[in-house]
Amino acid sequence: MEQEENNKRVSRRDRGLLMALVVFAIIVAGIAIVGMLLIKTPDTVVQGQADCDEVRVSGKTSGRVVRFFVREGDKVRKGDTLVSIYSSVLDAKLFQAQSMQNAAAAQSRKADAGTRGELKQGAYNVWQQAIAAETIARKTFERVNNLYEQGVTTAQKRDEARAALDAATAQVAAAKSQYDLAVNGAQQEDKLAARSMADAARGTVMEVQSMLEDQYLLAPCDGEISEIYPHEGELVVMGTPIMSVARLQDMWTSFSLREDKLDSIAVGKKINVVIPALGDKQAQMEVYYIHDMGSYATWQASKAYGEYDRKTFEVKARPVEPIENFRPGMSVILK
Hints:
- By secondary structure, this protein is of the alpha+beta class.
- The chain has three domains: 57-83 and 219-242, CATH 2.40.50.100; 88-213; 248-334, no CATH class.
- It has helices at residues 2-38, 88-113, 117-149, 155-184, 188-213, and strands at residues 46-58, 63-68, 75-76, 81-86, 216-218, 223-228, 235-236, 241-258, 270-275, 281-292, 312-319, 331-334.
- It has a six-stranded antiparallel beta barrel. Strands 5-4-2-7 form a four-stranded antiparallel beta sheet, with no helix packed on it.
């Protein structure tokens, strides 16, 4: 009797556990079903980034940065003075070019006036002056070449010194010819040649003067100084970027979209965006550029399993109206 009673108790306990498990399973299944009905698939978030064109400011002059007239973040207008660069080499070149111009002009006047003792002496003096200039140019080239071989200066500087030496050597030959012409008497062709030499010397002076004007770099456009690269007192070479000017008036946003998401995007179409950095400000932009971003080297034209490679396209859009405080680098959410 006791054994039967124990078996009944065990049977009732097992049935209770089984019922509890069944009820628990039903509850879990119900919660899962309700959750599946209530949970919605989140919308795909397409995030882009604001950007703008930047213009790099550089000059034709190699020299030392003397002074910056602007700082990073300053607003500038086209033509504003940005920086001053000083080059003692250009000053020396200008003096040399002006001297050559004066000498060539004197030779031209002498050829027109005819041969006189004074003109002969003048031609001789010009010749000697050209020889002295060549000597200076040769010494300068030797110093610059030594610095280049030591890795102190650039090949550009050496080439400039070599060009100056070649020009000085040519000027010596020209001055010698003019002296011989004065001694022998000038012909009409010689007079024309002397005038041409004077014009060439004047052109050299104008070239150096144009380079000197580039010692003061001006803003190429309206915008904001986004970055300044060197510091005052540093040496810069020709063509080195000095600073960048951001054209904030021409902002645009770039998105990366998979091609199966392009069905609602087209050039000229207006899209709605949200800018989180501006307090989730809503704005409207117009698409002006769509271009694929390239393919992987393993891209295949066909797939055996029914899928295909979805390419990514870069989409650019400009604000329809100016957006206050909209700056490069801000995130832009495509709605």
